[in-house]
Amino acid sequence: MPNRAWVLQQVSLRSLRPFVLSLGISAIALLFATIVQANAPAPPTYAWFTFTDAASKPVMVQSAQFVECETIACERPVLLLQSGTCQVNGCLRSVPALTSSLHRFDCAEQTCLYVVDPISDRTPRRYYKLIVQFADGVRSSQGFRLSQKGQFAFSTSDRLQVRVQAGELTIAPDTSASHPSRLDLFWIAFGLTQVTELAIAAVVLWWLKVDRSFLVKTLVAIAFINLLTFPVVWWFFPSLQPFHYRAERVVGALSLVVAIVFGLLLARQSIVTLKTLGKFFGGWLLSLPLLAILGFLVLLFFAPSEWLPSASGFTARITLPASELFAFGGETWLIHRVSQPMLSLPKAGLLSLLMNTASLLLGLLLFPTLQHIP
User: What is the DSSP-derived secondary structure letter of residue 139?
Assistant: First the structure.
């Protein structure tokens, strides 16, 4: 028989195994992160160009050419890079001079991004010029500088506003106040969505003359369902648009996974009570730190040195309707499942349609104003 001291020692060692294992995993993750950071390339120098009209409304770019010049008048333009195919009168027909993949000039919707190869030994000329094709024709700018000694400060990052006028493009530094990020606006938008949709649901359920207990349970269920669908609408679908970082796409994908898993689990319940909804809410809260750890590990492997986002993606004309269809369809199904047999599928669909239409219209009305809050 083993003695008491030996048994206690073995039990103590076994109890320490999970702690030691977690320390080992953390050490490996930190070591990997350190190696990645040490081997990441130097941040590139880049410039963002945003195209707007006289009323500061976005103007969509069809194709664009980034040109280098010796003088501000640009008598002998040299085509450096181009985005898309510009074949109408006014465009340069030459082959782009820069072939390195580290040099970039990408355009999508109303934005262009110019990236300079950080290890290039090429001596740039003094001026640059934009030639851009729009739906109503081609316009070009005067020569402008992108250098520390020039008219614009072009060190690590530069944001330039391109005003699309009748016959030309005018370029100036974007001196507007910094706008709140999408993360900053998340809770404001979520709060407005919850208040709007719960108010619409309360009115519709009152009009249907449901009893008080069913009214309270359904409103609580709708509030929880919004916790699942709103992050998908806010993060996943917008992250599919151009110029979104992989980190945003990881967050969006995780929000979609959470919505699908908890939605399926909720829909499988034959009877949904307030106690059931409380348990699901608790499970949702417990999943958040685990998802944060998972997202961090995914980013370590897939986006360790992404300095600038890709221009690939779907336009807002595709992602916005898709997000609304997802919210409408998902909420219709879940509201019907948690409110059986009181709300049929058509009634749940009508309720979902009214709620999502109201929140969408409110968002389209208020979002432009919220974006300009300093």
Answer: E
DSSP bridge pairs for 112:
49, 107
- Give one DSSP letter per residue of 184-196, joined into a string: HHHHHHHHHHHHH
Distance CA 357, CA 70 (A): 54
Asked whether residue 360 is domain-assigned, the answer is yes
- Shared-domain flag, residues 221 and 359: yes
Rounded Cα–Cα distance for residues 277 and 12 (Å): 40
Residue 83: domain span: 45-173
The answer to whether the beta carbons of residues 308 and 290 sit under 8 Å apart is no
- Residue 160's identity, in one-letter code, is L
Based on the fold, state whether residues 329 and 311 are members of the same structural domain: yes
Structure tokens at 67: 């040109």
Tell me which H or E stretch contains 219: helix 212-231
Examine residue 335 and state whether it is found in any structural domain, yes or no: yes
* DSSP-derived secondary structure letter, 109: T
Q: Give CA separation, 15 vs 8, 12, 293, in Å.
A: 11, 5, 23
Closest CA to 76 of 126, 122, 118, 28: 126
Per-residue H/E/C for 336-353: HHHCCCCCCHHHHHHHHH
For residue range 243-290, list pLDDT tens digits in order. 988 888 988 999 999 999 999 999 998 888 999 999 999 999 999 888
Instruction: Identify whether the C-beta of residue 141 lies closer than 8 Å to the C-beta of residue 129.
Output: yes
Q: Which residues of 252-284 are buried (b: 16+ CB within 10 A; e: fewer)?
A: bbbbbebbeebbeebeeeeebeeeebeebeeee
Same domain, 100 and 202: no
CA–CA dist 49, 219 (Å, integer): 45
- Residue-wise pLDDT tens digits, 303-320: 666 778 888 899 989 999
Question: Number of folded domains in the chain?
Answer: 2
Residues 169 and 186 in one domain: no
What predicted TM-score, i.e. pTM, was given to this entire model? 0.79
Spatial CA neighbour of 364 closest among 191, 229, 193: 193
Q: Which helix (H) or strand (E) element contains residue 280?
A: helix 274-302
Interatomic CA distance for residues 372 and 374, integer angstroms: 6
